[in-house]
Amino acid sequence: MTTDIRPFGPEAMACAGGLIGEGQPVAVPTETVYGLAADARNAEAVARIYAAKGRPDFNPLIVHVPDLAAAEKLGVFGAVERALAVRFWPGPLTLVVPRTADCPVASIATAGLDTIALRVPGHRAMQALLAETGAPLAAPSANASGRVSPTKAEHVLASLDGRIALVIDDGPTSAGVESTIARAKDGAGEILRPGPVTADM
Q1: Omega into 7 within 30° of 0, i.e. cis?
Q2: Which among 1, 46, 2 is positioned nearest to 20, based on CA atoms?
Q3: If DSSP codes are grouped into helix, strand and coil, which group holds residue 183?
């Protein structure tokens, strides 16, 4: 497979949307790091993310959605989670919540767990891809497992060239580290992975 790299714009997003519709993962920037996105409802597409990264499939993926309303179709939000979402979305915060009873996300994306990790990204490229596909997008960092997370398109190529079809280049990411992961516990938020959103915030 030859990996194509295209600058962010309508043509690139149409190409990316077509590939995702065919079940192929595409690298796209977020405000944190470049992500490797595929339709979270398509088990085969999600399996291709794991294969490209060499990532063990017991490690769940973050699912990106355009807004809180979309997130609430996939996960059950209590008062704490909703308050955190309203405060920090769109942005670099991932919330772990119970899956809804009719959640369409493939179980491989959540590693078979009854919870789901959800984020509303603030980056124009990922938001454009969500709009183009109309799908929730599973998107871990776009690098081989164990490598440093990519903050530029060339970092993605250095790690995944030949393993994926397309990288959308929209310059360096702003945060440079992966999103904070949090969940509700005892009426407050508990951080599971540190990131740009801190406990004090």
Answers
A1: no
A2: 46
A3: strand
Site of tokens 């796209």: 28
Residues 6+ apart with CB under 8 A from 164: 1, 3, 24, 25, 26, 27, 36, 52, 142
Neighbouring-strand partners of residue 27: 36, 167
Q: Which helix (H) or strand (E) holds 125?
A: helix 124-133
Q: Which DSSP string do the residues of 60-74 spell out, in sequence order?
A: --EEE-SSHHHHTTT
d(CA 74, CA 45): 18
Is the distance from CB of 32 to CB of 126 less than 8 angstroms? Answer: no
8 A C-beta contact, residue 163 and residue 18: no
Rounded to the nearest 5 degrees, what angle is found at the Cα of 52, between the Cα atoms of 48 and 56?
85
> Measured between alpha carbons, how far is residue 2 from residues 5, 162, 168 in Å?
10, 5, 14
**pTM (two decimals):** 0.96
DSSP H or E run through 185: strand 180-185
Whole-number Cα distances in Å, 166 to 3, 145, 195 = 5, 18, 27
Tens digits of residue pLDDT in 42-91 = 999 999 999 999 998 889 999 999 999 999 999 999 999 999 999 999 99
